[in-house]
Specification:
Monooxy_af470; 5 strands; 5-stranded antiparallel β-sheet; 5 helices; alpha+beta
């Protein structure tokens, strides 16, 4: 059978610890447009210096109404991703957002090639991704940090914001 389709695939053997992260920011209230316009460009520019371990950064548009934008990132390994997440300016963004979402919601889902997936949904009014089919629970205790959620607590580093900071 002849085909006009060019099929290709990839060899990921050079990336045995590959991590893929999807992130989204959704405007929940009109004031969230200001928050999105403040954080969005900064987040996009944060990939320009090519942080150690970041293999690819792609921008995504989930919807126009409500405005819901995001990114997909490919990281060499979990330690690289966690190191960047705890560095400036990401650390400051995350701390600020967790204190006040500014009319937006934020979510991310992380997938590891060697196994393990995790997610967090902050001020997201409608279940999406894993939350659309799996039981949802508070991100507290052992479910507070991403390394523990993905099943790699030994790779956890000092969190950007501690649970005690958020819930005194």
């Amino acid at each position: 059978m002849a085909t006009r389709v060019t099929r290709r695939t990839v060899d990921l053997s050079a990336y045995p610890d590959l991590v893929v992260v999807y992130l989204g920011m959704r405007v929940n209230r009109i004031t969230g447009l200001r928050t999105l316009l403040g954080y969005g460009p900064q987040i996009g520019r944060s990939a320009s210096p090519e942080p150690d371990g970041l293999l690819r950064h792609e921008s995504l548009l989930w919807s126009l109404f409500p405005m819901h934008v995001g990114i997909r990132q490919y990281w060499r390994d979990l330690p690289s991703l966690l190191a960047w997440a705890r560095s400036e300016p990401h650390r400051l963004w995350w701390r600020g957002f967790l204190r006040d979402s500014g009319g937006t919601g934020f979510w991310h889902e992380t997938y590891l090639i060697r196994g393990g997936m995790e997610a967090v949904y902050d001020d997201i009014p409608h279940d999406r991704g894993f939350a659309a089919f799996a039981p949802v629970q508070p991100a507290r205790g052992p479910m507070f940090g991403s390394a523990a959620r993905v099943g790699r607590p030994e790779e956890a580093t000092a969190p950007v914001v501690t649970e005690a900071d958020l819930y005194p």
